[in-house]
Amino acid sequence: MASTPSAKTGRILAKAMSDRLGHDGPDDCITSIRCNGREFHVEMSPFYICNSPAVESRYRKFIAALRDEWEFDTDEGKHPEDVMDDFHAWLINVFEPIFLEVAPDIPPSFDPAKIATGEAHPLLSEYFFPEEYRCRLEVENDKPFPIVMRDEESRWVPALNDIEPELAQQLGQYVKFFRPFEIEVSFEKPDYALSETPTRVLVELDDSGHKTLCFLKTFALGDSLGLEKELEAHLRILKSSLAHDARIARLRGVVAVEEDSQILGLLLTYIDRRRENGGFLFEDRLLHTPIPLRHRWARQIQETVEQLHGAGLVWGDAKAENVMIDKNNDAWLIDFGGGYTEGWVDEDKTGTIEGDLQGVAKIAEHLSNEEYEPYPDSDDWEEDV
């Protein structure tokens, strides 16, 4: 989500984290706002907007943008993301009195200052199961009334997905299953504790007492099929003879809740990303990437795919977006959930060696089809000989 955290008085920092359409009707929405370590789930509906043409128009545009049904308005110059960001900023401003009343302080686990000094060691459970409040937006005569329903149960459902118990049992032979309270969150910057969903975590993968930095990958609620497909692919990797030094994002553990078949997320190899390009092979940034470095990446991608094929495995959704570059300028393959992307792999070649080779060839073409234009005052990269 593109919205920016909004700093408020009294150390209030609020950010819209997600929107869910149609909880009761097709034009209803629940927007979840994180503020000072709490979650506020704001229910909205045309039913609660009375005699308020200005607010109703704002809300209808927001719903259209969420559905990706927004037509670019040349007069207003608004894109869907701008419409959503503006609405989120307005909604946060409307609910500021509620935030100041309910969440005036920052709990220690979310306090950037305490995290920076090591006084606080936030746990994953605190971020995914925070203190919650069910709210509603009512509007009359274009005047908004923010309401917190203190005695109402929250409608928020954690993004848990079920997998077959047999699959969980097979995975348990190769990796450990962890509960959220066993996992420590590690933010790149302490300030992210107030506004970002955790993706970097520290977990003791064995009994050595040493914690390993992992990448936490979560799935949308209801995406059990996608989760199972990715876990089945990782299970094949775990069972294979693929060398452990192969540059792929491996499964290191599974985060489950109560039962091992209720999955919160996957713990994967953490890749310390290259600062340039954001660590990805984005086309609009390749112009500033030296040609020899691009050739290095193309060669490494081909070598890693050959390793996969040699172990009887396939990559699946072979495309530039599924390659990550680390700070040492090495290329890593990510995302083994299968599927195909138009323009990279033909649909009839999905999940095959032939499809992988087609995708790798197009990645190599993608890496070599641009000229080089260095950033001002940049040093050209040269591979060690």
Automatic annotation (TrEMBL):
One of the record's GO molecular function terms: protein kinase activity
Residue span(s) of domain Protein kinase: 163-385
SUPFAM superfamilies the record matches: Protein kinase-like (PK-like)
Xref: PROSITE patterns: PROTEIN_KINASE_DOM
InterPro entries per the UniProt record, alphabetical: Kinase-like_dom_sf, Prot_kinase_dom
The name this protein goes by in its record: Protein kinase domain-containing protein
Organism: Achaetomium macrosporum
Source species taxonomy: Eukaryota, Fungi, Dikarya, Ascomycota, Pezizomycotina
